[in-house]
Write a structure and sequence with these properties.
Elements: H1 9-17, H2 19-30, H3 48-63, H4 66-69, H5 73-78, H6 80-83, H7 85-96, H8 98-130, H9 139-150, H10 152-158, H11 163-169, H12 178-185, H13 189-214, H14 220-239, H15 242-272, H16 278-299, H17 303-323
Length: about 325
């Protein structure tokens, strides 16, 4: 059974497979559900400390990827230009081209959400590989499912905004006719919901047919992870505000990343820092990353630091796409 896990059952379950429940339980414990008169996207019911914790946590996890990209010699040797020249070029581009910086800044939250559901997809594929399944079977269907479970609920929820709230949401724009947008989206909630449900049913049917035809069984850990991720995100956008939904997403996403980083890079860090104990390294890694996250929270509005931190976010999303490739045998 141990071969079904990245590390072990005791490690994988709290840090990866069941991590969506941790973020959900935190919000459930300290945040009240949205009331009917509250804004879905601009209000929140969480204590300030929880919002700050989620912010620092997600910003911190963006910085610890360097332990794999720059401190892992095997990974670094494969992509030296991607880890040196390209980040420097992007920082300078942001510093001297403000319009490009603003476009990238606006696009980053969307890419962040894409990156989040792609991380869930990546764990699913790793678990399938651990179960001995071919790396390409069902791959594109898994990507779409993770989009439907993790990103799509937010899109559907936005279609339920009333005219007043939609006006508040896009009042900064001089180029969008709010009445036109409202008329266009107010009738799309049910069709979009049914489309999402239809895809989930198709996905289940696909694997049932595949099992009957070839005996193929998807990883149990993958299916648990996907199910919990979908459940948590649907409940979050249904009963809580967007702020609480993002808190949940950021917390479990970061916990998963800390878990995979320590598992994959712990031995490498022990080799680099030979005299340090594993526990000291683990605590130091968490502490340093949290300090960097807090530093970013306080400095990312400053011009030079803003360009640097935005580059860190964008390359983190990009790096994860090729540093953990199951198809290319670069995952754990």
């Amino acid at each position: 059974m141990s071969s079904q896990f990245i590390s072990s059952k005791k490690y994988d379950y709290p840090l990866i497979v069941f991590s969506p429940l941790i973020g959900f339980i935190l919000v459930l414990a300290f945040s009240s559900p949205r009331t009917p008169d509250q804004s879905q996207i601009l209000d929140y019911n969480s204590p300030v400390w929880l919002i700050l914790l989620a912010n620092v946590f997600i910003l911190a996890h963006l910085t610890i990827g360097f332990t794999r990209s720059h401190l892992n010699r095997d990974v670094y040797k494969r992509f030296p230009l991607r880890f040196t020249v390209i980040p420097l070029f992007i920082v300078l581009l942001f510093l001297f081209q403000n319009n490009i910086y603003l476009i990238a800044f606006a696009f980053t939250p969307i890419w962040d959400e894409i990156h989040s559901f792609m991380q869930t997809f990546g764990f699913g594929r790793i678990y399938d590989a651990k179960a001995g399944n071919p790396p390409k079977v069902g791959r594109r269907f898994d990507i779409i499912l993770c989009f439907v479970l993790e990103f799509y609920p937010h899109i559907v929820r936005l279609t339920t905004l009333d005219l007043k709230e939609m006006t508040r949401a896009i009042e900064y724009s001089d180029y969008i006719s709010i009445d036109w947008v409202f008329r266009m989206v107010q009738h799309t909630t049910l069709p979009l919901t049914l489309l999402g449900v239809a895809y989930i049913l198709f996905y289940i049917g696909y694997y049932i047919r595949l099992f009957k035809k070839t005996g193929y069984l998807p990883s149990r850990n993958k299916m648990i992870l996907f199910t919990l991720t979908g459940f948590v995100n649907v409940v979050a956008v249904t009963y809580y505000t967007l702020v609480e939904a993002l808190i949940i997403n950021n917390i479990y996403h970061s916990i998963q990343y800390y878990g995979i980083i320590w598992y994959s890079e712990g031995k490498n860090l022990n080799k680099i820092f030979k005299k340090a104990s594993p526990w000291f390294l683990l605590i130091s890694l968490c502490f340093i990353s949290l300090i960097l996250g807090a530093t970013r929270y306080k400095t990312e509005t400053l011009p030079i630091w803003g360009a640097f931190w935005l580059t860190c976010s964008l390359i983190h999303f990009w790096y994860d796409g090729f540093m953990w490739s199951v198809r290319k045998n670069q995952a754990v």
